[in-house]
Amino acid sequence: MEQVILNDVRDQSYTMRESLRALRVNIEFCGDDKKVIMFTSTAPDEGKSTVTFELARTIAAAGKTVLYIDTDMRKSAMVGRHRAKTVSGKEILGLSHFLSGWKKVENVIYSTNIDNLFMVFAGREVPNPTEILERQNFQDLMEASRKNFDYVIVDCAPIGAAIDAAVIAPKCDGIVLVVAQDQVGSRSILAAKQQLEASGTPILGCVLNKVRMEKNKYYGKYYGNYYGNYYGGYYGHGDEQK
Fold it and tell me: Average of pLDDT values for 131-147?
């Protein structure tokens, strides 16, 4: 298994660290049968990938083996955000390489310089991500991951921007919806909730993100900086009813 180095992993503030620990404990209390957890959001730029990756780090720090799977083969934030590189200097392979049949599963799972954290990157952008996510080899990847890791954290594209999350959800044990404060209208959130419920996979809860805190400005600075740079231009922005 090849290793990748994540060069831009930031220190978590005290407030962020405690919030993530609370989220980790809440997921653990959902039961031992909730091992594969999918994260999505209603719209782009809600900070979903930051929450998802930092949670994976937090679970790994608690001594659990975690596989983080980035399924956004339209416009992934992860490689650009963390400036990952392989130790060997080779191209980082990812989910699109595996699902397209170009590479085997062992070629796309990487260990990292963070103890207990393993990653499957999205890989190259593809024109038909929803179609290849429906293939049997994605189901095989999920089943193998369930057997070999304590937790599998699946980062999906926003459900309001692409249908991918609805395709992936039935293969997971639970769903967490990330919602940015004052950024998405209630009707959009309810529509996303109904779409996810139709998958039959239980919604475990919702993470309220980008919360304005008088005494701690960290969240607004940290979460708002990068995610929109990757999604905004690609998916576009619709009018929201607030």
Answer: 93
